[in-house]
Amino acid sequence: MSIVRDTEQAEKGFKTDEMVINMGPQHPSTHGVLRLVLNLDGEIVRKCEPVIGYLHRGMEWLGQNRTYVQYQALVDRVDYLAGMSDSHAYIMAVEKIAGITVPLRAEYIRALCSELNRIISHLLWLGIFMLDLGAMFGFPFYTFRDRETILGFLEEVSGQRMMFNYIRIGGVFKDLPKGWTRKVKKWITTEFPKYVDEYESLATRNPIFLVRTQGVGYLSPELAIDRGVTGPSLRASGINIDLRKYKPYSVYDKLDFEVPVSTVSDTNARYKCRIQEMRESAKLITQIIDKLPGGDTEDLEKNKAQLTSGTNPVYKAEDLMTIAKGKNVPMGFKCGPGEAYTAVESPRGQLGVHLIADGTSVPYRIKWRSPSFNNVSVLPDLIKGHPVADVVAIFSSLDVILPDVDR
Question: How far, in Å, CA of 59 to CA of 78, rounded?
Fold first, then answer.
């Protein structure tokens, strides 16, 4: 059942006329392109209708009119805060149909970059979430400070800060810079945990924050499953489904980590799940660096012959060939015929690609399963009966990225 905050007038039976207002698409807290048509009874929302489509860019159509290689550069824009996840899902579909085996080192690098990307996505969400709630004391500066550090790491690897285009067909664009893993591990183990503690000291037990989030926007597990909600928004409702554990891909079956789950199901629970996910991602990054075949690029160059030679080599030579086909796939690369659906656990949930290939160099059909599209569908149910002041808190807690909705 939903916790409904009503006015004294409503409790005493006073009748008021309903008013229809538009929140967005220009409203800053609807992130510029979502329009909510609200029916208000005084301050209470009686009905909410999300209007989407203001940011439609035809990502599926574009993919069906470009070669597989050309489309690699576009997919980071499906969810611009999770470019590594976008690329990973699409590339896995191509590799599955084409029968391409990815070197083990490249798989570890993909997982490493995806977890770094998960943290920067959650950091941006947390800073904006607090700003949407009215935290005017500069909270986003804390999260953006640390996000900048990780963006710097990923820029060293890919040359880009957001549209990375790093995960490629057959591997990754290039190997990691020398000394990069040591630098990342030092920061992620010594500095980052203290910063997460700092976020929690400012928010988790803050009485104003608790009033704005506890008991607000209850999402029942039944409704979440019915609407196809995934990611932290689903796990905060007690459903323990994370593709990294549930249907492991890449090298996640070789890693040890916990999936944060809560049964409280409200806005505060969704916040706590994402906070804990950042801590778990930091642990994953440390594990990946420790298990990375060949170690740091500097060590790899020194020890490659030793690691791959002898009667019992530590790795096969192809396991350490980081780039593999990623650098050598021609522009006219042909795939199929075949059909595949592959999915990854993005920061917002299950991000999948249904790909149909007909043996040419251009995909026959591409369909994206974007988590924000499903997650935003529960918004009318969560908002109903709450005052209009709670609308922003509830919407923001779902971590909806509008390009991921409109595609």
Answer: 7
The label of the residue with tokens 């709630």 reads: 133
List, as one string, the DSSP characters of 14-43: ----EEEEEE-SS-GGGTTT-EEEEEEETT
DSSP SS3 for 368: strand
Cα 9 to Cα 6, 13, 41, 67: the distances in Å are 8, 6, 11, 62
pTM score: 0.91
* Amino acid, single-letter form, for residue 43: E
Average pLDDT, the chain: 89
pLDDT in the model for residue 15 = 64
* 20 & 142 share domain: no
Reduced 3-state DSSP string for 68-91: HHHHHCCHHHCCCCCHHHHHHHHH
pLDDT at 214: 94
pLDDT at 54: 86
Output the CA–CA distances (angstroms, integers) from residue 173 to 193, 318, 322, in the order listed: 30, 16, 9
Within-domain flag for 395: yes
**Cis ω before 140 (30° cut-off from 0):** no
For 24, the domain range is 8-51
CB 279 within 8 A of CB 126: no
